[in-house]
Write a structure and sequence with these properties.
single chain
Length: about 100
């Protein structure tokens, strides 16, 4: 599901905070905000998509290549950066309750 969003809040995220106003406005035209139910996998290790994901609200379970689990919350400083910038994806990310 795609939802409306306040584009000004996106300036909090890196590298979106660093791009010119013209480039930012062009980028905003192509942004889609999605809400995922608990337990839904956002992407798996090895996936090769061309999307950049940021966590706007909630929690994600991170599972690395060694099957180590950790939790990421939208309030953490780490969430100012894309969730995974490597292609293919190196970790699995799933929504939490």
């Amino acid at each position: 599901m795609s939802l409306p969003f306040d584009s000004k809040k996106l300036r909090h995220f890196i590298p979106l905070s660093e791009i010119s106003p013209d480039n930012f406005n062009e980028l905003v035209k192509n942004i889609s905000v999605k809400t995922l139910p608990a337990g839904k996998t956002l992407f798996n290790r090895g996936d090769q998509d061309s999307f950049t994901y940021y966590l706007l609200n909630g929690e994600l379970e991170l599972i690395d290549a060694d099957e180590n689990k950790s939790t990421l919350t939208s309030k953490s400083k780490q969430c100012r950066f894309p969730l995974e910038h490597h292609i293919p994806r190196q970790d699995r990310k799933s929504t939490r309750l």
